[in-house]
Amino acid sequence: MDDLTFLKTYFTQYEKNLFADDAKEKIVVMRDRIARVKQGEGKLIFAGNGASAAIAAHCALDFTKQAGVRALTFNNPSLITAFANDYGYEHWVARAIEFYAEQRDILVLISSSGKSPNMVNAAKYVKEKGMELITFTGFSTDNPLKQLGDLNFWVNSKAYNIVECIHMIWLTAVIDLTIGKSEYPVS
Fold it and tell me: What are the structural domain ranges in the chain?
């Protein structure tokens, strides 16, 4: 396969996933749920591993600074290493949620595979406590994280970069929809 054919196929995967039939509707639903959290003085809590943690941090910042919705993430190395050391890596996110979340909050868990034990255990904890869970996953349509979510964004791909980039685009679309425009000053 030559480079141009590769890129045509590659970008077709983005196109079919990004504009999936239910993506726009789910973005509106997420925005509406976030509006209720904002009015009820709740917050958004984001978590992910690796690149998904970077997406979580970016979105927590933009929801707070740009959209006026309190949001946080657990990307503090001291928090991660202390909780992982004390509770086990597969349980550190659930324990962080236990310490920082309140009933009126929405948890947003991001995992390309939807199989990361720390994300799945966090989702189980969120469900046990009756809190709302929004998931962003890819790979298998029946991944464990997606099965636990109240609102699920799923990318039909097994390519990490495609899954992660589409997650980022969908999440920033929710931010801009919450603000009500795509162009605005950032200071």
Answer: 19-179
